[in-house]
Amino acid sequence: MVKDEQAAIYLANDSDFVLGSSVFTQDIERGKRIANQIDTGMVFINHPTWTQAVLPFGGTNRSDFGRELSALGVQEFVNKKHIRASKLNDPF
């Protein structure tokens, strides 16, 4: 237990390894507010940490190796480039 909300946020952020976290509260809006202040790759409200293949997975700080799983995870391995080709006599 912590004495208040700010102490909980401080403790949650006071780590080099911050893959995921959970916030438990009766007030969902409060949980969202706290979740937005916690520096982890995943935050779950009223649920233990977990993931599925369709959800992006990854942490922050020393746990940050990008994102895995889901369409966002695929983007970690892709370098997109826009190329447009026109014929030399094409007026664009």
UniProtKB/TrEMBL annotation:
Organism the protein comes from: Polaribacter filamentus
Keywords: Oxidoreductase
Signal sequence, renumbered to the chain: none
Name of this protein: Aldehyde dehydrogenase domain-containing protein
Domain Aldehyde dehydrogenase residue range list: 2-83
Gene Ontology MF terms in the entry: succinate-semialdehyde dehydrogenase (NAD+) activity
Keyword Ribosomal protein recorded: no
Pfam families: Aldedh
